[in-house]
Specification:
single chain; seven-stranded mixed sheet; five-stranded parallel sheet; 13 helices; 23% strand; binds flavin-adenine dinucleotide; binds uridine-5'-diphosphate
């Protein structure tokens, strides 16, 4: 027996859940039920207007960027874009230098002669325009480049990474610091992708448009466990076996009551402040890489282009270990061999439910950007609908 009203069940209304729901509803003409435990859609990309009238990102700064044409064109059906190009500076003992560390940063950090010598060696060794991870740069045997590697490591990566992860750059997944390479150019964009921008009316409006389809029903304030159970290889919805596709985008350990122990995550505390000035800082994001207990300060007006003189809201991010206490959100999976192996055990349990699909940053225990999740949601939808998509 199958549940009579719905063809598909989606847990979570972030990118993974909302894109899949839309695809199954629209392309597949299926009735989709979305269960979301929060009181809003959008997952961690959710934004809202605060008491000061500023559009803020409730769960940390989200800047959309992608090299994936399909994802860009797909999301562009649901939003227009404000053409924001993300540029970040690090506050290094009061000097603001571009991050990723680039040739401009080099000349801010060293004397003209030393900077010129290092620049020459850098270009000779790696080539103009190269992107070199800090861990790769630290393997250099050249004394001038070693001075540079040590400077960047100490002043850009070490303290920030300790604050963010509670571990040094050598201890965390190398792919994490490689997200922010040393750039052998004066290019000062944070992301190298051809398509970047902010949804013109905000992320929540984008999600509202995605989920606005007659075949989609969204139930907010609804943790999956209120309506869905897993029992002996069968998914139950409201106590009745459900045989349609079930797309689960929450944490994999929680789906199985953390029976093998909790998957480790970092959580964040966000502190918002409103100031009576036009702008608080010169960029959307300033990273604090040598001091302060927070990692970065974000000022939303820079990112959204919102015109509101005399007031601005900023946000400081404090990172700490996730404990699973109520009210805490798991934001960053701590990726290493042991944690991946633990995740693998949960994945194996999930494989015992043939119609259950784990999708998204939490469910897949990976460090995915928004575009990667949208791409994965489109690919899973293709597979579920039995359609190939040519790229
Ligand atoms: P989520 O957005 O986490 O959505 C999952 C949803 O499922 C949530 O709404 C949750 O409440 C719900 N849920 C979970 N469990 C249950 C349950 N049991 N029952 C019901 N509902 C449940 N990416 C970028 O591309 N650019 C950025 O600038 C960027 N900045 C970021 C900054 C921060 C601080 C963080 C933490 C992430 C950032 N990301 C950024 C990554 C981005 O947030 C993710 O790629 C994206 O949110 C993943 O979407 P998702 O649907 O997988 O997960
Ligand atoms: N990082 C750093 N200093 C910086 C920026 C980044 O040490 O100024 C490191 C840090 O370990 C961080 C990782 O690079 O977690 C990835 O940075 P990114 O900005 O991509 O992180 P996110 O925006 O996803 O939190």
């Amino acid at each position: 027996m199958s549940h009579t009203t719905y063809d598909c069940l989606v847990i979570g209304a972030g990118y993974a859940g909302a894109v899949t729901a839309r695809e199954l509803a629209e392309r597949g003409n299926q009735q989709v039920l979305v269960l979301e435990q929060r009181d809003h859609i959008g997952g961690n990309a959710y934004d809202r207007t605060d008491e000061a009238g500023i559009l803020i990102h409730q769960y940390g700064p989200h800047i959309f960027h992608t090299s994936d044409r399909r994802v860009w064109e797909y999301l562009s059906r649901f939003t227009a874009w404000y053409p924001y190009h993300h540029r970040v500076v690090a506050n290094v003992h009061g000097t603001l230098m571009p991050v990723p560390f680039n040739l401009t940063s080099l000349h801010l950090a060293f004397s003209p002669e030393q900077a010129a010598r290092i620049e020459h060696k850098l270009l000779e060794t790696y080539g103009a325009g190269a992107r070199v991870s800090i861990l790769a740069l630290r393997e250099t045997t050249d004394p001038d480049l070693a001075v540079l590697a040590d400077y960047v490591y100490q002043n850009v990566f070490l303290h920030y990474t300790m604050k963010q992860w509670g571990q040094s750059p050598e201890e965390i997944d190398p792919a994490t610091t490689a997200r922010v390479p040393v750039l052998l150019s004066r290019e000062d964009g944070y992301f190298g992708d051809p398509w970047q921008g902010m949804p013109r009316e905000g992320y929540t409006a984008l999600f509202r448009a995605l989920l606005d389809h007659p075949n989609i029903t969204v139930a907010l304030h609804t943790p999956a466990a209120d309506r869905m159970q897993l029992r002996d290889g069968a998914v139950l919805l409201d106590g009745v076996p459900f045989s349609g596709p079930v797309i689960y985008t929450g944490a994999a350990d929680e789906l199985f009551s953390c029976r093998f122990g909790r998957l480790p995550y970092r959580t964040l505390d966000f502190r918002f402040e409103t100031h009576d000035v036009d702008f608080y800082q010169t960029r959307g994001t300033v990273n604090y890489t040598v001091d302060q207990p927070f990692t970065r300060i974000t000022e939303f007006k820079h990112m959204t282009g919102q015109a509101l003189p005399g007031r601005t809201t900023i946000m400081k991010e404090y990172s700490r270990a996730y404990t699973g206490a109520s009210g805490e959100t798991p934001y960053y999976a701590i990726i290493n061999d042991a944690d991946n192996a633990l995740y693998g055990r949960y994945r194996e349990l999930a494989a015992g439910y043939p119609n259950l699909h784990l999708l998204g940053r939490l469910a897949e225990y990976k460090y995915y950007n928004m575009d990667a999740i949208a791409a994965r949601a489109l690919t899973l939808s293709d597979a579920l609908l039995g359609e190939e998509h040519s790229v």
